[in-house]
Amino acid sequence: MELCHDPASREKGWYLALMAPNVKGPNYAWLDPSRLYCHPQGLQDCLADLLQPFQGDAIDVVAGIDAMGFILGAAAAAKLQKGFLAIRKAGHLCVQTVAQPYTDYSGREKVMEVSTDVISPGLRILLVDQWVETGGTMRAAIELVERLGGVVAGVAAICMENSEGGKWIQERYKCSHCVPPHLQPRFDQHQ
C-alpha cells in the first residue's frame, strides 16, 4: 500500500496492512509499525480506534514505552491534549529514577525506568506501546506507575496478544487495541 493512498473503505484495522513483517529474526518485534506511522490517514485512524474506548475517561498524562511506544504515545497525548511521559529502558534518563526489571518478548532480561518526580499519587496515566506480546514490558511499566502512586487509567497498544501476560493485563485494566476480533487469531499466531 502506498504511503499517501487512502483506501476507499476504512474499516477498523485497515491500517494494520501497512505494517512490515520482521525479516531480522526473533530479537525483533513481529511487525514494524513505521510505515503505519508514516501514513497520515493510517496514523489518524489508528489513534481514533485506539483512543475511542477512553473518550470521557479521566486521563492526566499519556506515557509511551521505549521506544516505538514513544511515537504512538506522543501522538495520543497530542490528540488528547495531555502531557507525555517517557518510560525508558535503563540508563537513558539523566535524572533520579525508579527501576523495574522485566523479561521482554524475546526472553531477554532488561530494566525499565521512569523519573521519580513526574508521577504523583493519584495521577491517572494512559500507558501506550506499539505491541503487547508477552506482556513483560507493559507489566513493568504498570508496576513503575503503581509503585510511585500513579493510577493506570488504561493500556493501549496497536495489538494485544492473547498470551498469558496479555490476558493478565486485559483482566486487570481497561484496554484498547486495533486488531478486529476476526483477525486476532492471526496476530496471536504471528501470521
UniProtKB/TrEMBL annotation:
It comes from the Eukaryota. Pfam families: Pribosyltran. Transmembrane segments: none annotated. The keyword Cytoplasm applies. GO terms for molecular function: adenine phosphoribosyltransferase activity. The keyword Disulfide bond does not apply. Its main location: cytoplasm. It is found in: Cytoplasm. Pathway: Purine metabolism; AMP biosynthesis via salvage pathway; AMP from adenine: step 1/1. Residues 55-178 form the Phosphoribosyltransferase domain. GO terms for cellular component: cytoplasm. Keywords: Cytoplasm, Glycosyltransferase, Purine salvage, Transferase. InterPro entries: Adenine_PRTase (IPR050120), PRTase-like (IPR029057), PRTase_dom (IPR000836). One of its GO terms (biological process) is purine ribonucleoside salvage. Its EC number is 2.4.2.7. It catalyses: AMP + diphosphate = 5-phospho-alpha-D-ribose 1-diphosphate + adenine. Homodimer. Belongs to the purine/pyrimidine phosphoribosyltransferase family. PANTHER family: ADENINE PHOSPHORIBOSYLTRANSFERASE (PTHR11776), PHOSPHORIBOSYLTRANSFERASE DOMAIN-CONTAINING PROTEIN (PTHR11776:SF7). This is adenine phosphoribosyltransferase. It comes from Pycnonotus jocosus (Red-whiskered bulbul). The lineage of its organism: Eukaryota, Metazoa, Chordata, Craniata, Vertebrata.
